[in-house]
Amino acid sequence: MHALDNVIWQALITRQARFAEISDRARRFVHEVSPLAGFEEPNDNGYASLSKLVGAGTTAAVFLDIPYSQRSGWEFVVGAPLLQMVAEPASRSGHPTSSNGYELLELGPADSPEMLALTALTKPGPFGTRTHELGTYIGLRQEGKLVAMAGERLKIPGYTEISAVCTHPEHNGKGYAGLLMTEIMHRIRDRGETAFLHVRQDNARAITLYERLGFQARKLLHFAVLRKLK
């Protein structure tokens, strides 16, 4: 088993265990941090354990190796095939050299409302009021307004995920995503870790950028948001 297999579960039993709600063979992030959940195995026992963590009418988001198939007590809400991509060790991007005059800023709790607004607009993936606690987030501001950001989400021994890469639509095409990702990648490598990420399989533009930065596809996963019926 590769370290990045069943990565949500691995994160919640290792480096991010402090964010976990636990029930038998399933764990989920505290709701304000992330809707992501994982189980030791996606079998009857795994789903039964997860059902103890999810209230009736509420949802959990999981990564699966195969497309979700209907299970009693659960409703499929939305999902998509995901590529898991890993940065090649030989990819040694240096520190960013240009930000069109804008300073790279480390983001924190005071920036959370703007981070939530930007992710709600651009939809890079689930982002909650405490998601910023999962790792380092950096951004770019123009005239005091947050126009682009990227940060860290899932963490397991030796690996850190880059996530929430997004740019305000009015500022697309300026290279901000690559700039921010290069900075995050550099910080991850300075810790002796490997960067990885997840991207929708149909997001060709993003995949092209990630490949240019040195990421290669490792595995096809299936993202599924599931609602507990009762």
Describe the protein.
The mean pLDDT is 93. The protein has two domains: 7-82 and 222-228, Aminopeptidase (3-Layer(aba) Sandwich), CATH 3.40.630; 85-218, Aminopeptidase (3-Layer(aba) Sandwich), CATH 3.40.630.30. The strands form two sheets. Strands 4-11-5-10-9-8-7-6 form an eight-stranded mixed sheet. Strands 1-2-3 form a three-stranded antiparallel sheet. It has helices at 7-13, 44-51, 112-122, 176-190, 204-212, and strands spanning 20-23, 26-29, 37-39, 59-64, 74-87, 104-107, 137-142, 145-156, 159-167, 194-200, 215-228. The chain is 22% helix and 36% strand. It has five helices and eleven strands, in the order αβββαβββαβββαβαβ. With 230 residues, it is α+β, with helices and mostly antiparallel strands. It is globular and about 55 Å long.
